[in-house]
């Protein structure tokens, strides 16, 4: 089968690799769609010291099913959880499966010589495989990042009559913005650079009351109707937390997910201001990958038009050009998906 590999900086290879037989605990999945994630860009830019497989936003067809696999049959459309809980450890038994990421998954099984989502096939562990219906494979590939957005929304907890700010309008930020509106927010604001034209237009369609162009004005200069906002969801580098703290109303909650390395991973803020304003900063990290069935229903019900985020499609042989386009085209790209 064909599988794509990446080495930083932005070096790619598509190889023909062998495909072993599955074990009784595995499912052979014919990959029909795999989305490009910000994590893939980090991997391509800095993380991959040697060529390695990548891609984790996966939808496909169960082509062969192991004897120990329950709830899945050959021919079923399936999603792949990027991480799963074990169900056996102390955390899981104490009802905190959300803190366990010990089950085998597409990332950890690379050490066993397996490929990931940018390939023709995937050998998946049984617990990572989730059935779905009622949508296209390419739209279904958005379920994994939607789970990340939902985890951020549940972490931040927008409520009825809150004013909400979303910093960073990539696919996850856009879905989080839509969720804030669905959860009862009174006003929803987005913050992004003005060059992100397609994302800004989508934010408005998803319910944003206004967009703050952070390359044209400081976030702290914007005149929020109530002086600031009650809930902030940050899907941008850590440095943006500093301004988020400054525009949060008293008692405000800031939910954060974002990755940066080196000096950019460190921030400072006035702890006294944070204390006396009774603010909260909460980390969202969607590992294990939860909420897949709920996200499927959000899409099928029409509550979130995930398919509208897909602006570009490509085949596995064009992966180098596609990844570079996602990294460089800040105007027209929202989501790019590899399709079979």
CATH architecture of the largest domain: Alpha-Beta Complex
Q: Taking all residues together, what is the mean pLDDT?
A: 96
The string of secondary-structure elements, in order, is EEEHEEEHEEHHEHEHEEHEHEHEHE
Instruction: Report the portion of residues in β strands.
Output: 25-35%
Structure class: alpha/beta
Radius of gyration from CA coordinates: 20 Å
Number of strands: 16
Instruction: Provide the low-confidence segments as ranges.
Output: none
**CATH top level class name of the largest domain:** Alpha Beta
CATH topology of the largest domain: Quinone Oxidoreductase, Chain A, domain 1
**What's the main sheet like?**
7 strands, mixed
Within CATH, the superfamily of the largest domain carries the name Medium-chain alcohol dehydrogenases, catalytic domain
Q: Could you estimate the helical fraction of the residues in percent? A: 25-40%
What count of structural domains? 2
What's the helix and strand layout?
Layout: E1 2-7, E2 11-16, E3 26-35, H1 38-47, E4 52-53, E5 57-65, E6 77-80, H2 90-93, E7 121-125, E8 129-131, H3 137-140, H4 143-156, E9 163-167, H5 171-182, E10 187-192, H6 197-205, E11 210-213, E12 229-234, H7 240-247, E13 248-256, H8 271-276, E14 280-283, H9 292-300, E15 310-314, H10 319-328, E16 335-339
Parallel strand pairs: 9-10, 9-12, 10-11, 12-13, 13-14, 15-16
Antiparallel strand pairs: 1-2, 1-4, 3-5, 3-7, 3-16, 5-6, 6-8
Helix pairs in contact: 4-5, 4-9
């Amino acid at each position: 089968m064909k599988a794509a590999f990446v080495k930083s900086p932005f070096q790619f290879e598509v190889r023909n690799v062998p495909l072993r037989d599955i074990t009784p605990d595995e499912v052979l999945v014919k990959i029909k769609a795999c989305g490009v994630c910000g994590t893939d860009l980090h991997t391509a830019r800095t993380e991959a010291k040697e060529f390695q497989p990548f891609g984790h936003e996966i939808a496909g067809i169960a082509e062969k099913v192991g004897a120990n696999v329950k709830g899945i049959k050959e021919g079923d459309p399936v999603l792949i959880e990027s991480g799963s809980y074990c169900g056996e450890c102390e955390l899981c038994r104490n009802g905190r499966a959300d803190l366990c990421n010990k089950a085998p998954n597409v990332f950890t099984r690379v050490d066993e010589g397996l490929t990931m989502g940018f390939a023709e096939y995937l050998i998946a562990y049984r617990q990572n495989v989730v059935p779905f219906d009622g949508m296209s494979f390419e739209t279904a590939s958005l379920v994994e990042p939607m789970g990340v957005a939902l985890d951020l929304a549940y972490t931040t907890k927008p409520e009825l009559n809150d004013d909400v700010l979303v910093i960073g309008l990539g696919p996850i930020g856009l879905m989080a913005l839509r969720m804030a509106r669905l959860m009862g927010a009174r006003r929803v604001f987005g913050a992004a650079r003005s060059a992100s034209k397609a994302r800004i237009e989508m934010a408005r369609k998803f319910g944003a009351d206004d967009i703050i162009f952070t390359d044209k004005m400081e976030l702290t200069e914007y005149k929020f109707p109530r002086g600031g906002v009650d809930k902030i969801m940050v899907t941008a580098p850590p440095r943006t937390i500093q301004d988020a703290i400054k525009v949060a109303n008293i008692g405000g909650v800031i939910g954060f997910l974002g990755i940066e390395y080196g000096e950019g991973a460190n921030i400072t803020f006035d702890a006294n201001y944070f204390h006396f304003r009774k603010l909260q900063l909460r980390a969202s990290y969607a590992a294990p990958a939860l909420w897949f069935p709920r996200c499927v229903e959000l899409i099928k019900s029409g509550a979130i038009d995930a398919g509208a985020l897909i602006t570009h499609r490509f085949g596995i042989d064009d992966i180098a050009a596609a990844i570079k386009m996602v990294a460089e085209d800040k105007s027209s790209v929202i989501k790019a998906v590899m399709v079979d």
